[in-house]
Write a structure and sequence with these properties.
- This protein is mostly helical.
- Among the domains are: 59 residues; 197 residues, Type II secretion system (T2SS), domain F (Receptor-associated Protein), CATH 1.20.81.30.
- A 3-stranded antiparallel β-sheet has the order 2-1-3.
- Strand 1 and strand 2 form a beta hairpin.
- Helix 4 runs antiparallel to helix 5 and helix 10 crosses helix 11.
- It is elongated and about 95 Å long.
C-alpha cells in the first residue's frame, strides 16, 4: 500500500506533519478530517524529487493566476445557477486558452466524477492551486457551502490581482525612464566620449577634473564593460541567493520594516493581505487557530510572520486576537483596534475584511504618491547625467577652439 506524506493543522492550531499508508490521497484527507484536523497538503511519499527547482521555476505554468481567477469565477457562477459540480467542470474544460490548461481542468473533472471531493482534485494538480485556495474549498465542502466559498475566493483573488496590476502599471513608466537613463549614459560614455579622448589628450589645454573622470569612465567601459556587466550579474545572483537564507532574509525584513516610509507602506500592505486571508478563512468556517496557521503563510515579511506566530500562541493561551496583535507593536494601530471591535461584536470575519479594504486603499494611495514623485526625480537625474557628460566634452573643446582663435 502506498505511503503519503501529509501536513495538517489541529483544532488548536498546532502544525502536524507525518506519513500515512492509504490506497489513495483522499483516504488520508478523510482520516485527518475524522480526527478533527484540517488537512493542508497530501503528497505521495514514494515520489522522487522530480524536476530540479530551477527548471521548474522557468517552466510555463499550465494555469497562470489570471486563468485560475477566471476558473474560480466561472465555477462559482455555474454552481450558483444550480449546475452540478461535475457538469459545471465539464463546461469549463474549454475555458483555458492553452491545451495544457484544458488538460488540468479535464483531470479535475475526471477526479470529481470518480468520487473525489473538489479540494482533493485540486490538491493533485502539482501545486497549481495555492494552499489557501485548496483549504478554502475544503472548508466550503465541509460546511456545505462550496459556491459561497468559491465566490469569496474569487473576490480575494481578484482584489490581489488588481493590486498587483496597479503596482506593475504604475512602475512601467518610471522603470522605462530609468532604463533610458542607463542606456543613454552607457552609449555616451562607451561610444561618444572616446571619440574625443585622443583629441583632448593631444591638445595643450588643461582638462577639468570632471572631464578627466568622464574620460576615465568611458575608457573603463570600453575595455572592461562586458566583464564588469557579467561580474555584476553574478554578484546580484549570489546576493539574491544569500538573501533567501532565513538569517539574512530576517535581517533584511527587519531593516525594511524599520525604515520610516518604506516600513509603514510594507506594514500596511502585509496587514491588508493577512486580514483578507484570515477574514476569508473565518468567513468559510475555518476555526481561528487553524486560520491563523494558514494565513501566516501569506505574510512575506519574516518579522511580521513571527509576530503572527506569537499572536497564535497567545490566542491558544486564551487571549484575544486584538490584544495579541497589539503586543507585537508592528501592526498599524487602526488595524488592531478594528480587530478588537470585531471580536467584541462577534463579527471578526467581516471586520477583518474591512481592515483589508481600508489598508488596500491606503497602500494604493501611498504607492501613487511615491510613484508620482519618482517620475520627476528620474527625469531630473537623466537630464543631470546627460548634461554632465556633454559639458565634460564641450567645455574643453570650447577652450581648445578659443585658444586656437587667439593664436
Amino acid at each position: 500500500m502506498p505511503t503519503f506524506r501529509y501536513q495538517a493543522l489541529s483544532s488548536s492550531g498546532e502544525a502536524l506533519a507525518g506519513s500515512m499508508e492509504a490506497a489513495r490521497a483522499e483516504e488520508v484527507v478523510a482520516r485527518l478530517q475524522e480526527q478533527g484536523h484540517l488537512p493542508v497538503s497530501v503528497a505521495d511519499g514514494t515520489a522522487g524529487s522530480g524536476e530540479p527547482g530551477l527548471l521548474a521555476r522557468f517552466r510555463a505554468r499550465p494555469l497562470d493566476e489570471a486563468a485560475v481567477l477566471s476558473f474560480t469565477q466561472q465555477l462559482a457562477t455555474l454552481l450558483g445557477a444550480g449546475q452540478p459540480l461535475d457538469r459545471a467542470l465539464g463546461h469549463l474544460v474549454e475555458l483555458p486558452e492553452r491545451p495544457a490548461g484544458r488538460r488540468v481542468v479535464e483531470r479535475i473533472r475526471d477526479a470529481v466524477r470518480g468520487g473525489l471531493p473538489l479540494s482533493a482534485a485540486l490538491e493533485q494538480q502539482h501545486g497549481l492551486f495555492p494552499r489557501l485556495y485548496v483549504n478554502l474549498v475544503r472548508a466550503g465542502e465541509a460546511g456545505g457551502g462550496l459556491q459561497p466559498a468559491l465566490a469569496r475566493l474569487a473576490d480575494h483573488l481578484e482584489r490581489a490581482a488588481a493590486l498587483r496590476a496597479q503596482l506593475v502599471s504604475a512602475l512601467v513608466y518610471p522603470m522605462l525612464l530609468l532604463v533610458m537613463v542607463v542606456a543613454v549614459c552607457v552609449l555616451l560614455l562607451a561610444f561618444v566620449v572616446p571619440q574625443f579622448d585622443d583629441l583632448l589628450r593631444s591638445a595643450e589645454v588643461s582638462l577639468p577634473w570632471y572631464t578627466e573622470v568622464v574620460l576615465a569612465v568611458g575608457r573603463l567601459l570600453r575595455v572592461a564593460g562586458l566583464p564588469a556587466f557579467v561580474l555584476a550579474a553574478v554578484a546580484a545572483l549570489l546576493l539574491l541567493r544569500h538573501l533567501r537564507r532565513p538569517g539574512p532574509r530576517a535581517a533584511l525584513d527587519a531593516w525594511l520594516l524599520g525604515r520610516p516610509r518604506i516600513g509603514a507602506l510594507l506594514s500596511r500592505f502585509e496587514t491588508a493581505r493577512l486580514a483578507r486571508t484570515l477574514g476569508t478563512l473565518l468567513g468559510n468556517g475555518v476555526p481561528l487557530l487553524a486560520a491563523l496557521g494558514i494565513a501566516r503563510q501569506s505574510v512575506g515579511n519574516r518579522v511580521l510572520g513571527e509576530a503572527v506566530e506569537a499572536a497564535t500562541e497567545a490566542v491558544k493561551a486564551g487571549q484575544g486576537l486584538g490584544p495579541a496583535l497589539a503586543r507585537a507593536q508592528c501592526f498599524p494601530r487602526l488595524a488592531v483596534q478594528m480587530v478588537q471591535v470585531g471580536e467584541e461584536s462577534g463579527e471578526l470575519a467581516a471586520m477583518l475584511l474591512k481592515v483589508a479594504d481600508t489598508f488596500d486603499t491606503e497602500t494604493r494611495r501611498a504607492l501613487e504618491r511615491a510613484l508620482a514623485a519618482l517620475v520627476p526625480v528620474v527625469t531630473v537625474l537623466m537630464a543631470a547625467l546627460v548634461g554632465i557628460v556633454i559639458l565634460a566634452v564641450l567645455v574643453p573643446i570650447y577652450q581648445l577652439t578659443g585658444s586656437a582663435g587667439v593664436l
